[in-house]
Amino acid sequence: MPDLTPERRRGGEVEQGGGTRSAPAPRTSRLPAPAQGFGVTFSTMFKKVTTEQYPEEPKVTAPRYHGRHVLNRHPDGLEKCVGCELCAWACPADAIYVEGGTNTEEARFSPGERYGRVYQINYLRCIFCGLCIEACPTRSLTMSNDFELADDERGSLIYTKEQLMAPLLPGMEQPPHPMRLGDDEKDYYLRAPGGASGTTQ
Length: 201
Ligand code: SF4
Ligand code: SF4
Fold this sequence. Notes:
Residues 71-101, 117-146 form the 4Fe-4S ferredoxin-type domain. The protein is α+β, with helices and mostly antiparallel strands.
């Protein structure tokens, strides 16, 4: 291990092997130093400006950018999440917390047996790797292009299920409500809304 005593580190420089400081590179231009310096400034004035005018001009991300998560719905408004916790187990940052609940005929939130009763993502931990959305068996969890997640309060960066749920689109109904697209959960995945074979979005 090199000897980095205060003497050797003085002035922010570390002496090279042999105990001698490296000499500055010899000047190759015949122009005086101030002219060289202003030359750099002048040539930079004509280069393409890369400054982002954010937030006045929000940056457009790549289509597959990994941003804020979304919990999606079936076309009738029922939730795709079945509370299986696979996303939480897949997360390397331990950023997801899920508690499943049991659907009843009186209060149904998703097709099938279970739904995500509690769902939280801690954006202080999330590294936006996308492993959680790969693990989700129902395509409930996806990632949007929204990157505006900064806040000055730690607690507000733990997003709840209500914040993550996709909005209700026309034709959707706020759960709980009965299954509208078939008699059991298989109809939601094996049959399109019109009755044709296929998967729902
Ligand atoms: S994107 Fe990665 S770090 Fe963030 S919640 Fe999903 S698995 Fe965890
Ligand atoms: S988001 Fe997907 S993986 Fe996570 S609990 Fe819900 S269904 Fe399971």
